Structures are given as C-alpha cells and as structure tokens.
Amino acid sequence: MSVLGKITTLLGVGGERSAPPLRYEGITDGLVLTDTDVWAWWTCETSNSDLLGEDERDAEQARAETALTSVLAGMDVHLRVLWSPYSADDYRAEAAEMYRAGNWEEWAEDRAARLDQIALPIRHVLLGVRLGGRQRPAGRRITEAAAVSPSGVPTRELATWHAAARRLGRRLESSPWRCSAATVELLAWMVTREQHRGVPAPVDGRSLVTGAALAALTRGRALPYPDHLRMVDAAGDVAAWVAVLPMVSFPERMLSPGPGEWLRILAEVSYLPPDDEDQGDMVGRLAPVSPEASVRLRVLPKRQAIARTDETAKLVREQTRSASTHAIGDPGQVITDAGEAMAELRADLEREHLSLVEDHPRLVVTSTVSLEDLRARVDAVSAHYADLGITVQVGVDEQRALWLETWPGDRVRVPDLGHVRDTAAMAGAWWWGGARVGADHGPVIGYLTGSTPGVVRLPPLADGRDATTVAYIGRSGKGKTTAGMMMALEAAHAGAWVLALDFKGDLGGLTAAADRYGLPSRLVQMSRAHAGAADLIPLLAEAGRDAARAEVPAQLSLVTPAHLRAAGAEVALQAATNAVISSSPNPATWQVVQHLRDSTDPVAVATGEALYELSQTPHGALFMGRPEPGAVPPLNTQPGVWVVQLPGLSLPGPGEERERWTSVQALSVAVMHSILAYGVTTAGRPDLRTLAKVIMVPEVHVLTGTVQGRHFLDYIARVGRALGVRFGLDTQDATGLLLLPGVIEQLAMVIGFQLTSAPQQDALAELLGLPVSRETRERIRSLADGDGDETRHGHSITRDQRFGAATVQWDVPTAELLDLLDTSPRAAEDTDAEAAHDGVRV
C-alpha cells in the first residue's frame, strides 16, 4: 500500500478498502440479500478430472470456457472453495436408517470412531453471481436513517429474485459445473464460519433467515494485525488465526493439467506442524493445510474484451513510436512481444468463443492452534505455489480489507491486486475438478485418494432401478476379497441374506466377523463332518418339493459311472427320487441312494452301491452323505451370512467330454451343481422377492470353465435387478470377464486393484471406462505402491453406478476386524483349526 493509501485509510477515506462491512438482511435457499445487493449461490459438483483422458479433459474445459463467456459474461461472480470436517456424528445419526440386524449400533460406532480418527476434510465449491442492486423506497430510507426500519425482506421482492436465480440456474445446471441451488443451511454455515465462534447457525427449520437469527450469524469479532487477523470467540479468547494471501503474479503460460489448475490443487498443499519439526523422519507426519480460495471475477463481454485489447495495443504502438523518436531507437523485446501477443489475442477473440476475465484471487489460510502454526501453513502455501511459478504472499496491512472481500455478498476492496486473462486460462484453473465417486447416501467404505479428499459411500444392496452386479478385479493379496467381505457385512447389517461361494477357502473370517457383530452365520466346509450340507432336497424344500425332482436326478447322474448310465441308471435315479420325495416326511438325497441299494433291479442296485461309495468321499458327502443325528441344517434363507467353502475342486476344462471326466471331476461338478442350484432357486423364489439378497463369488474363473458355472453367472447377472440380488464377482482375470457379455452389460460397479500385465490392465481399463493408454496402465500397476517397499493394500480405482471413476482407499475401521477378515495362509490355518474344533458356526 502506498503512503497516501495508508494515510487515507487511517483517516477513513480510503475508498473501497476502508468501506464499512456489508449488512446482511436475508438468507434463503440459493439467495443472500445484503443492504445493497442480491447474490444467487449455487454448489458446483466435483468432476472426476483426475482420471479423465486427454480428449475428455479438453472437451470439458472447452465447455467451461463456453459457459463463462455465454452464461456469465458481464456478471460479477464470486467463487468460494471451502473445507469442512466430515461429521462422524452425522454418520451416527444416519445409522438407524441404514442398519437393523445384528449389533449394528456397535458396527456403526466403530466406523464413526474411525471417521473421527482420520478427520477427512470435505470440499465445498460454491459459485455466487450478483443478480442486481436492491431498490429502496424513499420511505424505507427515512426509517432506516431514523433507526426504526422494520427487519425482513418483502415477499414480492423475494419472489422476483428467486425467479431471476432460477432462470440463470437452468443455464448453469447444464454447464460442466452441474450447479444446484445452495441450501439455506449451507449459506448460513458459509457466513457464520468466518466468525469462528463455535456457535451453530440458528437456521433449523427455517426457509428464510432474517432479523435476530441473521444477526447472530455475524456477531464475531476480528482483530486485524499487519499480516493476519485474530478471531475472538464468544468468551473473548482467540479462536483462530487467519491470513489472507493475494495471488499477485502468474506465469505468462501455464499448462493444464499442471500448474494451470491452481484452484484444483488446493488439497495438495501440506506442511510439517511446528511441534513435529524436531522429531526427524518427516514422511508420514505431513498434515494438509487446506487453504481456501476466494476469487472475485467478471467476464467481459466480447466487445469490451476486444476494446480492452485495442487499448493495450494502442499503448504498445505509442511506446514503440516514442522509442523510435529517441536515441534508443529499439523499443525493446518486451514491448515487441507485447505487441505480437495483443495481435494474436485480438484474432483469437474475434475467431473463437473466447473473452477476457478480470479476476482477484485470494487464498485464506486458517489455524486454530497458534500464530506460529499459521505462519508455518502460510510458508507452505507460498512455497507450494512458488514451485509452480505462482507468487502468493501475505497482504501486509491489507488484512481487514482482504478478509471482508471474501464475505459472500461483498465486493472487490483491493482492486489493484487483480489480473486480466483470457477465459481459457480461467477455465483451466479447474475449480470444479478433482475426484468424486460413490453414492450420496449409504455406508462409508473408504476415502478418496485423488486430488480431492473425502469419504466414499457405496450401496451394499441391489437397486431395483439399475444393474446390480459388482466386479472386484485385481491381483491376489491386494484387497479385493477383503473389500467384498466388507460389503457383504454391510449388507448383512442392513438385513440381507448373504451367500458366499468360497472356491479358494479363505473366507472363513467372514463368518467370524459376522459372529463378532451378532449376525446369524454358518461356515460350511467340504468334509465328511458336514455331510448333507449341500443336499439339494432340503435346500430346495422351501421352494417346493417339485424343484428337487428335476435337480437331484440330474446331479446324481453327473457322478454315476458311464456304463451304468448306458444301462439305464438315469431312469432308476428319477424313479428313486420320486419315491423318496413322495413317501418320506423328511426326504434327503442319502435316502435316494439307500432306496437304490434296497431295490430289486440290478441296475438300480449297482447304481446305489456306486453312489454310496462316492458319498464316503469329502466331495460326495457334502451333497449325498447322511448327516449326523440332530445336526442343525447349515443353510437357510434367513437374513445372515452363509459361507460355503469348496477348496480343491477339480473341474473339467472347457469342452472336455463328459465320458473323459475322472470321478473327482464328476464329484466337483456335482458339488458345484448343488450350490448353484440352491443360489439360483433361492434368488428366484417369488416369496423372497422382498428379501434383500447378496451372492458373493470369489475366484469367478472357477465357474467360467463349466457350462453350469457360465449359466449361473449369466442368469444371476441378468435377473439380479428383478430379483433384488446384489451379485459380487471376485476375479484376477479381467480379460476372462470381458468374454462374458451378459455379465459385462449388467455391471453396476467395478472395483479395480493392481494388475501387472498389459493385457489385464487394458481389460480393466475398459471395464472402468478409462482410456486404454500407457498412462492408465501405469496408474493400475502402481495402485499397490506404498511408501518405500511397502505394499498398499485396499487401494483401488472404483467405478460407480454413475460411471464416474476415482482412486479409493478401502478402509477397515478396526484392527480386530482386519485380523478377522485376514485371507492370508496363516489366517486360513487358524480358521481350519477352529472349524475342526467347533464344527459348523452358528
């Protein structure tokens, strides 16, 4: 500030700098009314710019430039980028709406406590536009001068401004910013947060905030100092230290992506808190600064922009002529370059959809710890932007004016700290860019790891309005199975029936975790101890006995020796099944085998003896063995978690003739036939249409090698929406999944973890909707890269139901739960030992 400016400011005649603060007169949905002006406010939706391909980025940025020049030209605009902590208390309050089974209160509290621990900041991007000045009747001005003016906003005036905001809002809705009107609660929070008084905004149940309630929002006190402000709370103590930093210079050219995205990269600024500076090993203790942005701008209509360019070009020509008439002769490279730049800019303004914008960018840095902490944060912000060629510095002796300038509804108070640039450069700041994925409601499953921090919510249950299949794809040990188990537990707490087909044998921890949180569960293993656990007759009994009349003979035929089938064994199998189902009060497959053995038909007897011997094997016992007396039925259709472990299946290869199957292969196919028939029948039962259902299939490539498996996958994927089934597929083979068009068409979400081969990476990129390129391959390859040599488990690229994709860290809220869900060989040994001791989990 000049000496004259300091003197006039001291005397109270310093122009805009020393003007009194604005006075708010009303806040309602989408509108802020001051004593002089009316501003409309919208929230901008975050775009997934982190993972956009080059062509998509260019197209979206071009649309943003068009919106600036066609929608906002000639208007006063105020951009605010704000941060707030994610409220774990809000999550606790929502829990009763999301969960109802098991010890859901403890489940929700563990997640909420984890959210408190990681304290994720949430970004809010708000766009304000001045609609116009308020007209005051002479009588109103007289009463105001006499200090007897009634409070409030006339209804007719409010309706007029709402109509103007809606007209402009319709145009902004279709812009890349996808604007929606800001709620009165959000606007009240935006106003009151500047006071740092720790008092909630008194707007509950209000659609219009005026009078005393509005005055309560701005009763804070700020003490200005040369390089910062001190915010005083209601008790008179310093609650926060705030510094406003103008962005005083930018490089002549900035790349986007890169330094040109100077508004998007706010979340990337970090610092080392002063208390940690003497502890060494800085990695891991860097904390986010979370600087906020306040940018006032005005897009010049094209005619004004061309006129401004002509004025500058005229000045350049005058300087050139002046230099040529003096001894210097040469006007200098700077003036020459300026003349060429003005000529190019004027041509662009006439030829392209381009204009100029006057903007006044400010960064606001806040500390609630100490002044020393504030200065460390300020230094980090200045250094971060200096690396990009952008000069950011504290507005010394300007803090009061700069701080008031950030208030919604105020004006530019320090006009000399501004810039004029083309709209392409302003759009390249990508204030709406970053990362966004997931749903607006539902369980929090992790957090974003892109340029925009925040929580990620994914629905665990099927949505009857959309596809329902979810694919978890990635290398072994990178977190895909754990992610699937967490979603299964979320679904079970929401009251779903969950069936997990465990072909690898590492899902025992799923039932252990279900037991821990009070959910009904069973763990069925392929052993003689669980004889009859996959018996189709009792499994299908609730669907009606006729369902088993066709399925059981077909299953037993799979394991009947070929010479007996040729002799007519299939007729004997059907007859025995019909007889047992019709006559026995509690029919079972082992009774069918015994009926064959007791027959007088030699073929039936030989078939029965062959099946009896096969029922003594672990594979055969599971679906046609005789259970122990009094054994609890291991599977049912009650809400809970039901895990069937089938490790060691030896399935025939695709196209392998049935006559060439070994007995182990035939038994493996029959076991799988039981479980798949149970899953398909249960999913399709009319009486269970209202029951939320989840079927989880790890190692899905085990199924794709058989006719029954491919039919099962295709059927459940296609009818999942109609039947209310969430279908979770877990595989290491992205290329194999692409060969299942019926499944691919029904994918609602894709969760991609690390893959290392180019064909697999390209297939995953296609499933995620990302460009198939070298950059995408490297991004997928590096998903599991942690600090140093560490592996980062649970880090993924997630594509949601809206086809948005972002990098996500899946989060398990407690160390105890993480140990329970451990899928390592050590955990599998512990589970096997416990199962051998306890039998079936109840």
UniProtKB/TrEMBL annotation:
Protein name: ATP-binding protein
GO molecular function: ATP binding
Pfam families per the UniProt record, alphabetical: AAA_10
Alphabetized UniProt keyword annotations: ATP-binding, Nucleotide-binding, Plasmid
Organism of this sequence: Streptomyces yangpuensis
